[in-house]
Design goal:
The complex is a heterodimer of chains A (291) and B (315).
Chain A lengths: L2 H18 L6 E7 L4 H14 L3 E8 L1 H10 L4 E4 L5 H9 L4 E15 L7 E3 H8 L23 E5 L4 H11 L10 E3 L2 H10 L3 E6 L8 E2 L1 E3 L11 H6 L5 E9 L4 H11 L1 H9 L12
Parallel strand pairs in A: 1-2, 1-3, 5-10, 6-7, 6-8
Antiparallel strand pairs in A: 3-11, 4-8, 4-9, 4-11
Chain B lengths: L9 H4 L11 H41 L3 H6 L3 E2 L7 E2 L2 H32 L2 H15 L3 H20 L7 H25 L3 H9 L4 H12 L1 H17 L2 H6 L17 H8 L8 H33 L1
Antiparallel strand pairs in B: 1-2
Helix pairs in contact in B: 2-13, 4-7, 4-10, 5-7, 6-7, 7-10, 8-9, 10-13, 12-13
Classes of the chains: A alpha/beta (291), B mainly alpha (315).
Chain lengths: 291, 315
């Protein structure tokens, strides 16, 4: 190709792009938020990009608070959240001229992780509240009558940074409406960091989305009260609600989704999109049969 | 360091202005360069003022509307994102910053003073030059790399040696921060020692003093202001450091009662939370209020360091 014809083709292409405007040009959907959902969201974006090369979905994590803050600030199209938006946040969004609309895209069982050397297989919600709650009373494992080999007794309480949806959901579900976290928890900046730290630390206990469970960790069976039968966190128990600390995973859009965002959201709710939720370790919102 | 803007005697030497016009090409270049250099010189002031105004503007709303001074400075509960009852107490964060910086100084001061004394008074020739280059190299290591060392190398070592459950603690961050501050302190301390005139040393040696006696009795007292200034700059460095501290402290809001407790620093709190707050919200403003506090403290520390260092130049 001579340089002249190259120039011509470039200008033609540019003219075509200009003429067609937003219709056929590559559009970008900004998607941000929950660390729990980030792997699912990335997987969706990749698969969707294969079917729809004209649409690029840019996904980033950072925590539910990050996504919601970005939605309120008007810098994203879709915010991922592993907790509901608070009334205060909805009011803030409305004040800035945005109208958040909630879409439940999956369910998660909030898994409680302990080190492999932990002797028991289950804990109860009140025991968790004792460990995590302010004034809960348990700072040593012996306070709960537990001895862990390789641990001198002190409980290493692993939590999440305070904008995390998982943090907020844990606070609500385990510590109750008025409950507060205790001082001195190690606030990790992501679910993966929680899993890594608990894996290496015999004294530790932590929580995060079920998808972060690995074979190097023990995932506890949870009962609502000590002595009652416990439920293992799985996709099924998250979906049917028998696991006591299961929660919906949400996406928020600004107003009813339109155009490309609408198509994307519909695709996410389709069998293909929901199978990706299942594949990443969470529970889909409806019964789907996946390959 | 003072930059003078006086034109080098242009108008004075020109006798008959009409007979000898100096405004040739070089004259214009000279004027242009002076103007550019002047702009660069004052830009630092503009930036500092601009940043201060911005930080104050963002944080001042919190100070006047939401801040309860007692709660802010005297309670250890930092739970700013609670929906019903957010708590903004920075006592634990201040304790975290203070404990880490304090320990860092305990690590850095002996190291850097020793290194400076060796480089300035004892080493000579190739050794001295090599050491100086190495010290500068140490200062050039990015803080995230230091943080990584704290996370990956120090953490398991502390767990193993001291038999504690978690190695991300005051000790870890203090050592990391001490090593980070040491090169700067070494450079400044060495400059201060070099600034002591050689005739002091020669006079002492003529009296039969040994090397160490010269250093200890003559050079160190003469250089003490410069050394103190160097230490204070190191404190400022420690106070303002973020990334390494974020990674090595364990990031737990906690008033430490031993060096093996995890803590959280003021800077790390801003870094970890600012990106995730609603612009203009209460939490956002509270973080900027912490920013104002940090700005003021580092400003005071650096200013006093500067005044002390200037003190020796005059005296």
């Amino acid at each position: 190709m001579t340089s002249k014809s190259m120039l011509l083709s470039i200008s033609l292409a540019a003219a075509a792009a200009l003429a067609s405007g937003a219709v056929s040009a590559r559009t970008e959907i900004q998607n941000k938020g929950s660390d729990t959902l980030v792997n699912v969201a990335q997987s969706w974006a990749e698969q969707y990009g294969k079917i729809n090369p004209d649409v690029a979905v840019a996904v980033s994590g950072g925590g539910s608070g990050t996504g919601i803050a970005a939605l309120i600030n008007g810098t994203v199209d879709i915010a991922n959240a592993s907790r509901k938006m608070k009334d205060k946040e909805i009011a803030e969004a409305k004040a800035k001229g945005h109208d958040p609309v909630e879409h439940v895209v999956g369910y998660d069982a909030l898994a409680i992780f302990v080190n492999k050397s932990f002797p028991l297989d289950s804990l109860s919600i009140p025991e968790l509240a004792k460990i995590y709650g302010r004034g809960g009373g348990a700072t040593k494992w012996s306070d709960l009558g537990i001895t862990i080999p390789g641990c001198k007794d002190e409980i290493v309480v692993v939590s999440r940074q305070n904008n995390s949806g998982t943090y907020a959901y844990f606070q609500e579900a385990v510590l109750g409406d008025k409950g507060k976290f205790r001082q001195g928890t190690l606030d990790m900046h992501g679910s993966k960091d929680v899993a890594d730290l608990v894996e290496k630390t015999p004294c530790a206990i932590g929580y995060s989305g079920l998808a972060y469970a690995t074979d190097h960790l023990k995932t506890l069976c949870i009962s609502t009260e000590k002595g009652k039968p416990c439920v293992k966190p799985t996709e099924e128990t998250a979906f049917d609600g028998t696991y006591p600390i299961a929660r919906p995973l949400m996406m928020y859009t600004d107003g009813k989704p339109k155009a490309d965002v609408k198509k994307y959201m519909e695709w996410i709710m389709s069998d293909v999109g929901q199978c990706i939720v299942a594949k990443e370790g969470y529970a889909p919102v409806k019964k789907v049969t996946c390959k | 360091m003072a930059n003078s803007n006086t034109a080098p005697g242009v108008s004075v030497t020109a006798g008959g202005a009409a007979a000898f016009d100096r405004r040739n090409f070089d004259w214009y270049v000279d004027k242009a360069v002076q103007a550019i250099v002047f702009l660069c010189g004052i830009s630092a002031i503009i930036f500092v003022l601009g940043i201060f105004v911005f930080v104050t503007k963002e944080g001042v709303g919190f100070i006047f509307e939401h801040m309860n001074v007692r709660e802010f400075f005297l309670t250890p509960y930092w739970f700013p994102s609670d929906a019903d009852d957010p708590e903004f107490g920075i006592l634990a964060l201040m304790a975290g910053t203070a404990s880490v910086t304090g320990l860092a100084m305990l690590v850095a001061i002996p190291f850097s003073l020793g290194a400076a004394i060796y480089i300035a008074e004892f080493a000579s020739g190739k050794t001295r030059e090599t050491l100086k280059v190495l010290v500068e190299l140490l200062a050039a290591i990015p803080s995230v790399v230091w943080g990584f060392i704290g996370l990956v190398i120090m953490n398991p070592l502390i767990i193993k040696w001291f038999d504690v459950p978690v190695g991300l603690c005051v000790l870890n961050a203090g050592i990391i921060l001490g090593l980070m501050a040491a090169p700067i302190m070494t450079s400044i301390a060495e400059d201060a020692l070099k600034a002591v005139p050689d005739r002091y040393r020669e006079a002492a040696e003529a009296m039969g003093a040994t090397r160490w006696q010269v250093t200890y009795k003559v050079v160190l007292p003469a250089a003490k202001n410069g050394l103190l200034g160097g230490v204070l700059l190191g404190v400022g460095r420690g106070f303002g450091e973020t990334m390494a501290v974020l990674m090595a402290t364990g990031h737990a809001v906690n008033i430490p009662d031993s060096i093996f407790d995890s803590v959280r620093a003021l800077t790390a709190t801003i870094a970890a939370e600012l990106g995730e707050t609603v612009v203009g919200g209460e939490h956002y403003q509270a973080l900027f209020t912490i920013g104002i506090l940090l700005f003021l403290v580092t400003f005071i520390v650096n200013l006093s360091a500067d005044l002390i260092v200037r003190g020796i130049r005059k005296g």
